[in-house]
Sequence to fold (764 residues):
Amino acid sequence: MQGSRSGRDWGAKLVLAAAFVLVAGPLHAATGRLNVSKWKGLSLAVDAQWLDSGGYRPVKVRVITAAPSQADRSFHVEFEAGTPYNPRTVIVSQELELPAGKLESEATLRVPQYFSWQYYNLDIWEDGRYLEDLSQQRINVSTGQDWAEGAPNVLIVADKPAVSPALPAVPAGIPVLGLATTTPDARTATLASLLAPSDPQVAVGMGGATPLTAVTHLATSLTLPLDQLPQAWIDYSGLDIVCLTLAQAKQMAAEEPGRWNALRAWTAAGGNLLVSGVVSDAPELAELERLLGEPRDAAANADPVARGWVAPAPESFKRSIPAPFGASNLNAAAATVGLPAGGAPAGAMPGMAPGGQAAAATQPPPKPQPPVHDPPFVMRRHALGLVVAVAADDLFAQASDQWQGLLNSIGHERWVWYLRHGLSPQRENHDFWDWPIPGVGLAPVTAFQVLITAFVIGIGPLNYWWLRRRGRLHLLVLAVPLSAALVTMALFAYAVAVDGFGIRVRARSFTLLDQRTGEAASWARISYYAGLAPSGGLAFSDDVAVLPLLPQDPNQRNGEMRRRALTWSAGKQTLVSGWIASRTPTQFLTVRSRATEARLKVKQTSLGAPPNVENQLGVRIERLLIADAEGNQFRAESLPTGGAQTLETASLSDEGTWYRQQYNRLHPAIPPGFDRTMSRFMTGRFYRWTSPWNNLLPPAALRTSILERELEAALLQLSRMQGGAPAGLRPRSYLAIVERSPEAEYGIDSYEEAGSLHVIVGKW
Fold:
């Protein structure tokens, strides 16, 4: 299907697209299922229920025996997700141990979700023997359409159930995976009304056929009891907002510290945490800070504003959700496939959800309550994330204008996943081409021109003249192919000599290091060029979220069709194959949140005196600017790892100029003369049935990502003026440009790095 289409063909295309949208199921719906297989006293339960988005999808796998095991049993599980119409698959494997005397064992496979899954296969081995009858094949997990990138993924934390749910398909009395509520209920009705049309059903009649139902309501919510929440922060990496109460936060911190720390780490990495039941001028606010691990400043304890809390602006409650991320966009999306916006299908029954499913809630939605507190909520940064403290006890009993003000205050650039990360798993990423490795991977244009010119002259008139003069003109049949082979080998040798067989890396990272809590959050954009792909793949720590930055639309017929494999082991994830190819530019965005011992050790003999700084960051500091407790600014250059130096007083105007120059010099840019439209030359253009919900959205751009916004704020803040003078750093903070980020991992031990920018902002 290449080239132009007749009017009749386009009409058929619209009809097919409309039918696809109508039968595909919920927009951005929670997908997956709980599936159980049994064989010879063993039961295998696989829970793939989660929300479609980028990041990692936690898939719970549990092996259950009818009788306690007499000896340790070892299982190898391999989860493969794919699509039937496009040969893309991602394979994740992990070991699962069942100790002697135990009835069950559980493992969470964290599966990269960079495309819309349609099915999964799960294969299981015990001690090297394949268990065919226990394995699961071609299990449907999706509605069949791309997820909507303009809607947020919301996780609602529920109270711990009194009795753990049991699965009838396994031996009685054995608790298994808790079923998540993935259908929007009355609690989310108000939020849904802001992000979807007022009527959740769209009717269409095609050629007199019975109208079908298109589901366009908000179905991006997932409800889990607090004892079923993930225990690793990257399991949250596909979510945008997590909602819970202060009482639930206190219970988690006391009874489920691992789950609470994972939620804290996700928030610190850039997530949005909404906590209800917290009044801005009451002790509950200080309690929330304590639970989050925020350091307490005795001088600012009485004033929430001094502790960083900000009240919403009044206009936030009056503005609608910005297009195209609000309800109007979904109506427009329906129009793109010839569907009327609004209207109920013939024969629809009250109390039925779209698609004929029974409504999840049996009770009417709670009546909206006016805010009883002023302000109704306050918010503050937590590392790179955002915490919103809502005064109301019931977050979902608020009037629509309260939710509207809340979402507008957070900002759609934060609660829309692809804007927060600056990349799209569903659409083309044009910014891929603005971060090449200097001088690597470029076509040898000059050498090619010289060689091809010499080849044409030599193989043509010069060769003919020389052989004819010696009376051996018949040797032309040998001279031509030999000359061509020689030229080809020369081009290959030149490319090898220039690019080599090693791996070149260019990175752009930002790290927020809070020495008061010993925690760090880091984002990095990493560009690779491998002369020869590493045989062992790329190995990262298990607390690093690795997100592929794909140049082409992955859904194009000749787009991203690669088979990728990943293996989890103790403390490590290995991207075994398919993630990086020889002599092919490759990029990832990595996000990390963890506890760290890296720090600057600051010693100051008296207030205002130049401090002495010892570099315990583990990397060489190229330039350092630091503010003491009184806000006095000091500087240093070239501080090696483990080295100590007494700083000198800084000129803020000079420092501002230098950091601004570094920002501009190393800013991503398309190489001169590069035409990114030529990247389609080899693959061509192919039409596909794209999701109309994403077609109306702005393209993905890394400038909206947390990484780029933090780099800009850090390096350009000194150039801004406050009261006629350059703005300096806040007291007890520092800004450092380092040789290499101590938190960013590249997945390889041997590499050559060039053209990188690594920034650390610290608090001490």
The longest strand covers residues 503-514. The CA atoms of residues 196 and 327 lie 4 Å apart. The chain has a mean pLDDT of 78.
